[in-house]
Amino acid sequence: MPWDWLGSRLPILRRLRSGEQAPVPPSAAPATSARIARSEKTRPVGGVVIPRERHPISRKSISPNALRVLYKLRDAGFAAYLVGGAVRDLLVGIQPKDFDVATDAKPEQVRQLFRNCRLIGRRFRLAHVIFGPEIIEVATFRAGGDDGSGDRAMVDGRIVRDNVYGNIEEDAERRDFTANALYYTIEDFSVRDFVGGFADVEQRLLRLIGDPEERYREDPVRMLRAVRLATKLDFEIEAKTAAPIPRLAGLLVDASPARLFDELLKLLLGGHSEASVAALDRFGLLDAVLPATAQALRVPAQQPLRRLLDAALAQTDRRVREERSVSPAFLFAALLWPAVVPRFQASLAAGHETQVAWGIAADEVLIEQVRRAALPRRISTPMLEIWQLQSRFEHLQRKRVVRLLEHPRFRAAYDFLALRADVEPEAAALFAFWREVEGKPESVDVALRRVAESGGDTPAPRKRRRRGGRGRRPQDSPRSETPA
Ligand code: ATP
Ligand code: MG
User: Fold this and answer.
1) Counted domains in the chain
2) Pseudo-torsion of CA 22, 25, 27, 28, nearest 10°?
3) Pocket around ligand 1: residues whose beta carbon is below 6 Å from it?
4) What is the pTM of this model?
5) Tell me: the pLDDT tens digits for 245-258?
6) Which of 30, 96, 184, 461 is an S-S bond match for 86, by CB 3.0 to 4.6 Å?
């Protein structure tokens, strides 16, 4: 019921429904009057026009910087449109987080027009127009098919470089989903639709443009995008778009680990990580990006590791919705916890010292992970620290407690201990102590006395052990710090 959902979300459509004016689905707009015959530099532009009064996008909800870019390009004689995720999000009533512009100006021409501009990208050459913290991405219309005039490189059916310029219609066709191929123009504030995207948005359908299998083979990351966008927008993935995903999921193994990571991070930090991860798993995609997490999610919901993952994702979503900061290192510490714990235990059993054992386990996990979705150092380094500090929470001697409270990564590690405390009884006992002293170093003595008096509710500090030293037999069970 397309008008029902639109009507409930969009003020203009609510007005339309209440009888001010009968709603006219864009797909039903008369084709002849809707075709644009305006000359646009080289040739007339086709497509359906959704006039201002039939869509809810107002200039007030568009970034003033994006409008500045659109007007400046227009005044210099170029065609310029707001495009992609921003148009889609505005149509469904979500405030976009960034604004992209498509134009017939070449990247060099864009650069000449804006002082605050830099050209980026190898696979896609793009102009970034920089306004303080806001970047407006300006992309030249590109064509899907290679006519030999441009700069396209394909390897095994995959696009690796793609700088073949085209017109707006070709630009629409090379985009991924119909909902992502809508163009908003400041000429008459209409939306231009070349691929039926407006009707799909109206029906909350995510549909790949063209032949789905071919489009996934060209760029397997589109499978992750399908899941992420459908979850974010609460759209259904159209049947033909969804069907090949489980069969083609394996293609992700050959995708660039850096791109996979970027897309995974967007998926996890978009406020719908719990639903997105579940959907990735349903489509058989989670194994390709986070194999250890995928495995851990397959155990019954009440198992500790599974509960830890569920809690980490739920907490992340809650924080995003409350517009609080989210630490990717913290989240990955949880997502890779099921992978690192058994390796840590094995390293300990082999006689390594605790911190060394964490290092070895983390290296193994990262080597495995880098082949999938590669974690950059800015995330893997603090993640390792969060893991390492878990062992240090066990040392309840005054000096060590005070030192740990001052550790720059204390807060993240403490939050992680809190997460573990919900699922591991031993971590819960430790957490009770740390909660008492967190942010209150003056209460350390009182808290330590209480632990001593309570007669060992909290695990005793472990003794230092040398590699291969006395008193350690191979059959010794891993220590209390080894979690569930
Ligand atoms: P988000 O809300 O997460 O930013 P988005 O759709 O804007 O979603 P971007 O990565 O910002 O995602 O991409 C901008 C636009 O570029 C998309 O809307 C789409 O038109 C196009 N695009 C992005 N990735 C691809 C792809 N892999 N294949 C084809 N077109 C793509
Ligand atoms: Mg975007």
Assistant:
1) 1
2) -20
3) 84-85, 98, 100, 175-176, 180-181, 219, 221-222, 266
4) 0.81
5) 999 999 998 898 88
6) 96
